[in-house]
Design brief:
The protein contains 5 helices and 12 strands. The protein is of the alpha/beta class.
Length: 228
Amino acid sequence: MAYDFPLIQLPIPINQYVNVESKKTQIFMHHTAGNGNPYGVVDWWCSNPAAISTSFLVARGKGTHSDKIRKWKDGEVYQCFSSTKWGWHLGLKAKDLPKGSKSSTALNRDAIGIELCNWGYLTPKGSKLVTYAGNTLPDSDIIELSSPWRGFKFWQRYTDAQLDNTRKLLILLCERWDIDRSYKGDSIFDINPRCFAGESGIWTHASVRRDKWDVFPQPEMIQMLKSL
């Protein structure tokens, strides 16, 4: 199937995902809670024996990796393994699963994960706003929500390039797997029994985890999802 966005192959070792094919019925949107570097995300995954990973990463901003060779640009989409395979990207435990839910294994197996590089929420520190790691960001990177979401009002914004190419990727994957791409309402940003039950569609990590903040309801994110 043709695509008109930058899709860069960044394969990860076979032991970092589950090399078993499965039919996909859901897509989960995540963000990395880190900087814009997709290569750094892969390095972290590969240092973790738990096989935590997603098929796709969407870079933020531009920069050069620590090896001074690999560079990235805003909105570039990286594919780490085939969407036919799967990784442990939801982090669900038995206590997280309500009555009527699919198993944790099935929810991970039957879904495609997409990670947007993004720090997430920001908190006040003196006169500044900082990430959970203590970083400060340019004012142009910061968005203030009209009301707090999951306890936070200030966030690092998803860029226009990230949202544009994520939109194209979502359309491609929904067509490939016959996944419902209609917007299910703002309830995707909270615990959703329909998601646990395996309803076809595009969901967020927050749909199944109360302790997660990805992806957050940036108005441009909602507009993008409604445009699908």
